[in-house]
Write a structure and sequence with these properties.
Elements (H helix, E strand, L loop, with lengths): L2 H28 L1 H4 L2 E3 L6 E3 H18 L6 E5 L18 E9 L1 H5 L6 E7 L9 E8 L3 E6 L6 E5 L6 E5 L14 E4 L4 H9 L1 H13 L6 E3 L3 H7 L24 E8 L1 H13 L3 E4 L7 H5 L9 E6 L2 H10 L3 E5 L5 E6 H6 L3 E10 L5 E5 L12 E2 L2 E4 L6 H13 L6 E10 L2 E11 L14 E5 L1 H10 L6 H13 L9
Parallel strand pairs: 3-4, 10-11, 10-12, 17-22
Antiparallel strand pairs: 1-2, 4-5, 5-6, 6-7, 7-8, 8-9, 12-14, 13-14, 15-16, 17-20, 18-19, 18-23, 21-22
Helix pairs in contact: 1-3, 7-8, 13-14
Length: 502
Amino acid sequence: MTAEQLSLIVNAAIRTIRETQTDIEKDIRWNPVSSFRDESITGTDKTLKRVDLVAEQNTERALRDKLGLGPDELLFLGEEQLSIRQEAKDLTKERKLVVLVDMVDGTDLLERGLSNWCSAMIFFDPRRARGEKILAAFVGIHEDGVYYATQAKKEALKHRCHIKEGQFRDVPLSGGLSKVRKIAEASICFYGQQVGNLAWVAEHKPFLDHLQKLARDQRPLKTRIYNLAGNPMMVKMIEPDLANQADQRGPLLLGYTQIDAVFDACGQAPHDVIAGAYIAWRAGAVLSSLDGTLLDLEQSLLHPADPEHRLYYTVASTEALSKELGRCLPRVYDKVDANDNVVGKGTKYQIQREGLWRRMVHIFLVNSQNELLICKRPATAAIAYPGLWTSSAGGHVERGQQYEAAARQELKEEHGLSLPVKDLGPFKVEDDRGKVIHHLFEAVHDGTPLQPDPGEIEEWAWRKPDEIASDVAGNPQRYAEPFKKALELYQATSPHSAPRPL
């Protein structure tokens, strides 16, 4: 794409966002009841507010007119259309320029007269090489300005009216990100307006434990948490704060105390995330999936109507802050059915809430005396089954990971061992922690003395399997439930296990 073509897109997008937001404001003032009337979408049972439908229709007409592109050249995907546009499920073979639009992102806020709604727009070309598909992204905050970034430059800009001159101009937002490196000093946003999302925060023990520890150790604690997230909060991350503008005469920008990080652990659709995340990234923010890998915006854009491409993410002002959040936020796992077929992805809380299954591994270390290593969990740790005896090692199978790879990884993490493992088979556990399909693995170790991770293991001991089984029978409360089932499977299948008494 030429510089001239990209400039045309930028001008058309900014003008369309400004015009559409002005029209939205006029319509609401003229007839608020009509603006927020429910409208049905043809061919579905979905309803939406009239303001969403009208804004989307007006935006498509305006963009096509300003760009001079017809249906054969531009695929327009409005957020409200995604449920009925089959091609929106997979755009990997699309041969046209695509624009994904959500002109009223936060309709519930607008309906209540709150200001944190925005208009979001992303232009991308599926035909281009990986890493070059996103051409430009825009987030318009009504009566504030239009934030945007393009592929042409690694920077973010804000198009707004100069307070004194009354004219619109572009203002670079370089250096707007904060330098905050710790949660103890950060202002953090998450999407918590819906009850399920808020309940996740209330029930996710590692996150709450981390905050409570900070509250005990840091006085006064500067952390602030807001239950708003998505596009508008991500662009607010790159707004220079008041201190950075103290010497300006006739400032072009409003002054803000910054947002330092935005996260979502329940998953948001591409149109709710990508425009703001891309702009923040071009300004230097750190984008990460909850599993610690780089957030892949392009893959989600290529499947904007597919719920399995929702984004679980953190966007942070610094690498250190991103890593600290990653240590206390939940991971995303494969959802599986009772037959161990993958049916989606989600956090542990989501999978449990939906009544589906997740995957875990248990590893039994045995030595040449046919002894089994059992380990006791720390009583105070924010981990499963605290204070109970369990397997030599174990943990979740990461999304897309194989059971055997997960077993080797857990052995390495908990004991520092790199050993071959043997799969002894699956078993299932259903308790108050949800439904889990476990695979039990065996590994032989007669080498160097063990040095288990103290964060995972408080005590350990080598015992004969029949001695352990006898103690489990007499003192079941001392052992984790999955370990009891793993021990039964081990005694039935492992050649290292003594025959079970008749």
